[in-house]
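Hello again, I could really use a second opinion on something today. I owe you a coffee for this, so here goes:
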Amino acid sequence: MTANVQLAERRLRALSSVDAQGEKPLEELNDDAQRAHTLLARSARQLTRLDRLVGDLLDVSRIQAGKLELRPEPCDLLEITREAVREQRAAWLGRGITLDLPHHAAVLLHADPDRIGQVVTNYLTNALKYSTEDAPVAVWLRVRGDTARVEVRDHGPGLAPEQQAHLFERFYRVPGIEQQNGSGVGLGLGLSICRTIVERHGGAVGVESAPGDGATFWFTLPLA
């Protein structure tokens, strides 16, 4: 990140030093500006990843210390899910993400909306990272009795039963499965944090998968 920012600064200084008469052809000026933009955009992506990694490490520390703070309030799981999908569509332009919601005016929870959104986002980013660019990702929300269930389905490599048994353990990363998209590799903390968040809300997490047949990650929460 430091190198990218320093290079971008050089490009911008070169642009700012050009006098009013212009010491460079317009094409070269545009090229300098585009290179600076590319370097800064790359740094922004790296900062986003760093922020996510630091956030995961802080969450794990809080969980270990029994100090993970939740701020429950009345909230709508429909809107939380919609917003998470909306954000990922914007972040992964061109990727197909379908959303299937029930015909309810609202799915009301007494929960921490930011933390539940964190779970949906984690499921979505995993599905997008571990499946090819042309593979769609599907999100479902269903209400059964007094329970809401969210599912995220991908068309990635799938998981064997012995791998599924460890997925929600801290620092676990499935051996032999490579990330297909996105920058950087995580620490194996996201799903463990998701499990803690959901269980602290009285819900459950799980996965349904078979090798070569993709995976469906789900979680349930009690309705308000």
